[in-house]
Amino acid sequence: MAWANQGMQALIPVINRVQDAFSQLGTNVSFELPQIAVVGGQSAGKSSVLENFVGKDFLPRGSGIVTRRPLILQLIQDPNEYGEFLHKKGHRYVDFDEVRQEIENETDRVTGQNKGISAHPINLRVYSPNVLNLTLIDLPGLTKVPVGDQPVDIEQQIREMIMTFISRETCLILAVTPANSDLATSDALKLAKEVDPQGLRTIGVLTKLDLMDDGTDARDILENKLLPLRRGYVGVVNRGQKDIMGRKNITAALDAERKFFFAHPSYRHMADRLGTTYLQKTLNQQLTNHIRDTLPTLRDTLQKRLFAMEREVADYKNYAPNDPSRQTKALMQMVTQFNADIERSIEGSSAKLVSTNELSGGARINRLFHERFPFEIVKMEFDEKEMRREIQYAIRNIHGIRVGLFTPDMAFEAIAKKQIARLKEPSLKCVDLVVNELAMVVRRCADGMSRYPRLRDELERLVVSFTREREQVAKQQITLLIEYELAYMNTNHEDFIGFSNAEAKATQGQSVKNVLGNQVIRKGWLSVNISFVRGSKDGWFVLKADTLNWYRDDSEKEKKYMLPLDGLRLRDLEAGFMSRAFRFALFYPDGKNVYKDYKQLEVGCNNLDEVDAWKASFLRAGVYPEKVKTPEDESSPDSDEASIDPLLERQVETIGNLVDSYMKIVTKTIKDIVPKAIMHLIVNKVSEFVKEELLMNLYQSGDADKLMEESQLEAQKREEMLRMYNACKEALRIIAEVNMSSIGETMPPSLPPTDYRPTGPSPIPPVPRPAPAPPGHGQAPAPLVPM
Question: Which residues fall in a compositionally biased region of kind Pro residues (predicted)?
Answer without folding.
Answer: 760-775
